[in-house]
Amino acid sequence: MNDILPEEMHSFNYVIQGASKHINQYGYEELAVPLMERTNLFARSIGESSDIVSKEMYSFLDRNEEGLTLRPEATASIVRAGLTHSLFYRTQKRLWTKGPMFRYEKPQKARYRQFHQISVEAFGFNSMSVDAELIMLSKRIWQEIGICSPVLELNSIGSLESRIKYASMLKEYFMKYEKELDADDIRRLDKNPLRILDSKNEKIKDIKASAPRINEHLDKESQEDFELLCSLLEDLSIPFVINPRLVRGLDYYNKTVFEWTTDKLGAQSAICSGGRYDGLVAQLGGESVPACGWALGIERIMALIKAENISINELRPGIYAIPLGLKAAYKMPEIIERVKERLINTIIWSDYSEGSLKSKMKKADKSGAQVALILGEDELNQGKLMVKLLREEGSQESIPLDDVSEVVARILGK
């Protein structure tokens, strides 16, 4: 698991703020769901044969011997919350959430066992226009953040009925290469052959490439919906690549599946993944409600910002306060609080460390602040304070303590 240090938090918040700006603009309402759920929620929704459920979940028994799991993803929790609070009853709902997820995976660059996601979900919409809207929303976020390398990969995995037929074809195909499959692939072959297309086993790379393609075996409705979605994306000027091997790693998907990928992060190429899951609400005990959504990985976006050398305007103090001596240090908090009342949104950094004025001025200049407030014993005895403009050579003045807020506000143009 990974610490996000102070110098990284600015990038972390930059991603959240950039994403939430557009998510809210599209009419999605935020909710928060618990970090833990009953284990069977994820087994029922994600699929017991999935790698997430079979190998990656943090599950345990509580004091009542009830199985609990740290959430590996948010969609199942959002659906559970919607059913618990009747959010889907005869209405359409756009929801989103953010927060940490947990998977027991092998840690790699931009992949951690605790990671953070933003999840966006639309319920009650049959139209492919919503699939296109969600993809357009994600593109808006890339534009807002400033990243330019993501490529949209798109596929349809059809209806449940067409997938059952396709799975039978895949099983028959891969059975011919059973000796080449590893233990995980053998398990997938028995429970869900589509997962072999997601296999990381390099030995069967060429075998997978020659396997039957799901987009050649779609039911009529899924094929028509996919063609409509492609047409909508073209109208929106969103380039995409059809990837017939894209199946996603969760059982609840149907029809549309997509990923935004990049070549800047090595093996962790997917930064945002999603699709349609029309059967999930009914599967978890509700009425049949069509649904579509996606999740983006915040740490991966942060890594991509770094990889693409995107410059972010860091949060810097506007004012650097320098008390000199014990009496000045006692007085400075009162002065700063008066300034804060006048300049609510201005960051003020107070330097209460020991050291000379020269050393503190070096730190003030390095901080990026525009103004230094210097309070020494002489100034304090005179009821004054020195205001120094850090970005203008030789510009400083001594002012009465009572005038500090107004003078600094005028200097900063507030």
Task: Give your account of this protein's structure.
With 414 residues, this protein is of the alpha+beta class. It has two domains: 6-158 and 218-307, 2-Layer Sandwich (BirA Bifunctional Protein, domain 2), CATH 3.30.930.10; 319-412, Anticodon-binding domain (Rossmann fold), CATH 3.40.50. It has helices at 6-25, 39-46, 51-56, 75-84, 128-145, 160-175, 183-191, 205-209, 220-235, 280-283, 298-307, 326-342, 357-367, 377-382, 404-412, and strands spanning 29-30, 36-38, 58-61, 67-70, 93-102, 114-123, 151-156, 241-242, 254-261, 270-276, 291-297, 319-323, 348-350, 371-375, 384-389, 396-400. An eight-stranded mixed β-sheet has the order 1-5-6-11-10-9-7-8. A hairpin with a 5-residue loop joins β3 (58-61) and β4 (67-70). α1 packs across α11, α5 packs parallel to α9 (220-235) and α12 (326-342) packs across α15 (404-412). The longest helix is centred in the first third of the chain and has 20 residues, at 6-25. It is elongated. The model has no long low-confidence stretch (mean pLDDT 90).
Number of helices: 15
Strand content: 15-25%
Gap between N and C termini, in Å? 42 Å
* Beta strands, count: 16
Structural classification? alpha+beta
How much helix is in the residues? Answer: 25-40%
Low-confidence segments, given as residue ranges, are none
Can you tell me the overall shape?
Answer: elongated
The main sheet comes to: 8 strands, mixed
Please name the CATH architecture of the largest domain. Answer: 2-Layer Sandwich
Give the strand order of the largest sheet, numbering strands 1, 2, ... along the chain: 1-5-6-11-10-9-7-8
Q: Domains counted in the coordinates: how many? A: 2
What is the CATH homology-level superfamily of the largest domain? Bira Bifunctional Protein, Domain 2
Question: CATH class of the largest domain, please?
Answer: Alpha Beta
Q: Average pLDDT value? A: 90
CATH fold description of the largest domain = BirA Bifunctional Protein, domain 2
How many whole angstroms does the radius of gyration measure?
28 Å
